[in-house]
Amino acid sequence: MVSHRKKISWQSLSYDTALTAFGVASDTGLPEQEYARRKEKYGENILRTRHEAFSVRFFWELMKNPLVLMLFSTGIFTFIFGEYLLTIVILIACTAHAGIIFFQKWRTRKVFAKLKEIRKSFSCVVRNGRTMDIPTENLVPGDIILLATGYRVGADARLIFARELEMNESLISDERVGVKKNATKTVPRERPIDEQVNMVWAGTLVSAGVGKAVVVATGGRVQCAALLERLHMMDTTRTPLQKNVLVAVLSLAAVVILCLATILAFGASTGSSFATVILLSLAVLAASVHTRASAAVTLAHAMGMETLAKKGGFVRNLAGVETLGAVTVLLTGKTGILTEGKIRISEVTTPRCVFEQKTNKKTQEGFSLRNNDERTVLLHAVLASDARIEWNLHGSAIPHAEEWHGMERISSGETGDRERSLVIHGRPFERGVLLAGLEGGIRHEDAVRVHPRTDFLPFDSSRQCAVSVHKKMGDAAHRLVLVGAPEFLLSRAVFFLEEGVKKSMTAEMRSSLASYCATVGKRGERSVAVAYKDTNEKAIPLALKKNPEEYEDARLVFAGFLVCSDTIRASARQAVSFAQEAGIRVILVTGDNRFAAEYAAEALGIRQRNQDVAEGEAVRGKSDDALGAMLSETTVFARMLPKDKERLVLLLRARGEVVAMTGDDTCDARALQSAHVGITRSNSSEAVKESSGLFLMRGGVDTFLHAVKTGRSSTDSVRKTMMYVLSASLSEVFLLGAAVALGGPFPFLPAQVFLISVMRGSFVNFVYAFGPEAPDVLERDPVSAVRHVFGKSQRLFALVLTLVTTAVLVGLYAILLRVGTPEGALRTFMFLALAFNTIFLGMLLANPRQPFWRINFASNTYLLGTAVLCVMALSALYLFSPFTVLFSLEPLGKGLFLLLAGFCVVGVSAVEIAKRIAFRWGD
């Protein structure tokens, strides 16, 4: 066997040589013992990303923070001028700020690490002669992997089989989309990676066709390791809200700096100590400008992502959290989102049964196929399925698969019957077909062995059917089997099957069969047609591959129907109702016929009785203006193709809506990409996931609603942070300006303001990110994250509170100055007033829309803990002499304490009045 240390140009070797080098057969794969040995030798197939939580680089990032740099520089300045006590205070403040930033970064990274663990990928391999899905991290060199449309390649591999295989290699180059592959070619060793047509690379996507390959490199040894490392990192690009926060903080900084420059100039002209004024200005700047506010957005969104993951949803990036909170329209499919996604075949029906109104419904024991025609219908459906069965003793640990337990006698040298677990991999309908086949005595693997497949196209809603070609069926060399939309197959069928003989179909018969489909739809079920055609061609006709609508000369034999049911989720109706109350318009867009769509929409409250249902054919005939007008009134669209869905998304976006769309099929990828948020289930193909922003690991529309709530709550946390920043940042500036203008002593000292800056940093940087969701968050109108970070309410609150607080503080300063309060006591009073105002404001903004007596402060332990620590710190400063000396505090008399208590009451009242004014008049 080949040594992995040798640098081998696999593209220059034939695939037989590659298989020999790894000591593996393409049809059986690696034995379990050999896999275990290689796993121990080569390790897991993962990229070893750098852990920088406690690295020098990480701490250097802390030191690069403007606030920390400013404090550190100020500390050096004070040390040079002999202000040693102040230097100690500044270093304490610098360390405290660095600690706050460290906690913020560490908590964010911890969340991202958890989310990365949740998003596992799987690969389809052949081992021990069995086909199975395994976590991609368990791939080893020599593994045989299977490739199909929508799969992501889990490791570098040499192709050993390819049929019309095309790869999306945009990971290597943006232009490398739809790259054709060829397993039989060999490529000279000096050719660059983009010319190696017999290789597939880790991280690339299968855009078309099927293939089989042998793994040649895993983990950090793959060709695109550096690119993949970046791909697997959580996207932390600045979101629109972060950009808005940064603009707001910089604007505030500009205002503060301008005010301080004016104060500095005025103070110098009046004979104030220039050094003291500079230090005070720097201290006030540190307390007023919060450079980490945009990072608080990251933490708030990261915590939202973690919360959502616990409820069954995974958001790919931070921007997705914001956008979900702003969604105004949801275009949703039916299967898996509004329904359980567990499709069961409830009837197998032949044309003669329809004509005679005798259907074959499933019983509790399963199907009892009454004749060969019914067996033919089910057999053809099983053959045209791309689902896969995997048997495991005592159950299966493989996720994203539907399990069905049965009994099977096995010969393993043991006696008696043992229960085995059947895991069916595939899309819901395909799984249902294979399960019905088992219940009817038709096993997929046996059927394919008896009737080998020579060509195949999986179901595609744009094609409206699955197509499979098989040998040893019928009179001709091959049989073309089609399973899909009844209207598509009925329009191309000229015969029908009766007692094993094909007979001519009349227009009346065709109409009767179409009416049967309508009847099935009206009771909430879906009919799928089965047809075939005997042919001498082993390949699917080109017209059917490229443009199914032009496949007219089909002369198909119509075999019958499969009727399938999918239970509507118990939580779906309530979730749809909540979404509508939250200002989100829910529109059902499905490939099902209008009757099934009507039934589901009425059951879920999406459609009112007598409201029109739009069908795909009518939609395609309308202009954009006409369709836009239809969108205003219509909530149900049936028989829609992927291109129709994309058109709806683009029209809604053009009208200013924030659109979320659900989809599972690979052909939905473009429409999902066009939406603001694409939503898919976690068992969708990697191609669909690549186009989506939200994965539903469990649940359906209810999980989407949780995601919306999470998005709005995260944005709410950011708004609270910025309300705090604006409301608390200007009081010291105006108070200092008033003191200089009045010619009085400074109302506070630099050391005292540096301490206040630490207290504020705690509230700004993380406490609101850990708060609970506001009870009324879904009752508010969706607010787009791309608009300004402050609404009218937030701006009005900050203005009212700043004016009231500043007026009270300046008034108290003037009164105390006038009555001859000693300078030390005056500063101590003003410092404590500012400190308690900082704490109370932080507490009362826990829910800006509720009065303080209705706020459950215990629901946010970080907020409560921060407030308690701040109060304890103030008590320690005032009561212990080393701290009183360090911060220049003096005892206050009884009168000043009562006045301080009165100020606290006034401060709390001011916040409550500002909240009431802002959120009553502002809204």
Structure, explained:
- With 923 residues, the chain is α+β, with helices and mostly antiparallel strands.
- It contains 32 helices and 26 strands.
- Strands 8-26-25-24-9-21-23-22 form an eight-stranded mixed sheet, with helices on both faces.
- It is elongated and about 115 Å long.
- The protein starts with 14 loop residues before the first helix and ends with a helix.
Classified by CATH, the class of the largest domain is Mainly Alpha
Per CATH, the architecture of the largest domain is: Up-down Bundle
**Which structural class do the helices and strands define?**
alpha+beta
What is the helix content? 40-55%
Strand order of the largest sheet: 8-26-25-24-9-21-23-22
Mean of pLDDT: 80
Shape label = elongated
Instruction: Find the count of extended strands (DSSP E, 2+ residues).
Output: 26
Beta-strand portion reads 15-25%
- What Rg is obtained from the alpha carbons, in whole angstroms? 34 Å
**Alpha-carbon distance between the two ends:** 73 Å
Number of helices: 32
CATH topology of the largest domain: Calcium-transporting ATPase, transmembrane domain
Q: Estimate nothing, just give the exact number of structural domains.
A: 4
Low-confidence stretches: 393-419
Major beta sheet, specifics?
8 strands, mixed
State the CATH superfamily name of the largest domain: Calcium-transporting ATPase, transmembrane domain
Family: Belongs to the cation transport ATPase (P-type) (TC 3.A.3) family. Type IIA subfamily.
GO cellular component, one term: plasma membrane
Main location: membrane
Keywords: Membrane, Transmembrane, Transmembrane helix
